[in-house]
Amino acid sequence: MSRHPPGTQSIQRTILILKTVAERKEIGWRLTDLAAHCGLEKATAHRILACLAAERLLQQRPGDRRYVPGPLLFELALALPAYAAFKEAVHEELLRIANRADAIAFLHLRSGEETICVDRVGRSQVQPLTVIGTRRPMTESTAGVAMLLAMPKPAQEQLLESIQGGSRAGTERRTLVYRKILSKSRRYGFGISRGDVVPGLAAIALPVVDAMKRPFATISVMGPLTSFDEDRIQKIARMLAGEARRIEREHRALIVEIAH
Length: 260
Known about the structure:
The protein is α+β, with helices and mostly antiparallel strands. 50% of the residues lie in helices and 18% in strands. It has two domains: 9-76, Arc Repressor Mutant, subunit A (Orthogonal Bundle); 81-258, Beta-Lactamase, CATH 3.30.450.
């Protein structure tokens, strides 16, 4: 939080709560658990939650009183139709990717220093934890690493320093795991994980860039590690690269609206 100007702490805390609740939209959050997860005093979290609920940005589910997203989030999102249109436009490509790779295909968008999963199709014997709405720091997902590798070196180093120096760097073990993934991905030239996060699960991710060659999205696949030998990894990577270029060509107008 120290990267932001002084006097914005309450805003940062509010945004953190909104993002956290949105990520676990089906399960919801109890006040105590949410406060602990966000590193806030229970009284502070309660004040923020009460305000957000009054404004309909969050709501308490009648059955268990857990906090879940509120209707105003949907209403505000209507001001950005290009995002929904891009997701819908790419959905058919994802279906084709999932069928060709016999795996689960994902679309991620960049969200500041994080990635967010906006679409998921397909099936796999080994189920990844990533679902629509999952949000992670760019250094803590194969999709994020793929975006990172497409950035100029100075921008890569600046973002790595910013994320790893912040409170979201995670446990030491988790940090070591993703350093290993980043190192491996640099050797391959695209985002790749082979059982590094979830045992028995492999993932490959390629970036989608805008007209200025800035990565703003990724397409990726996840499936059983046993199905991802070296030859198949390279074949899937080439297929994803081709699909990424197709998306960049065919949806240029939408990309201009959402990539910045």
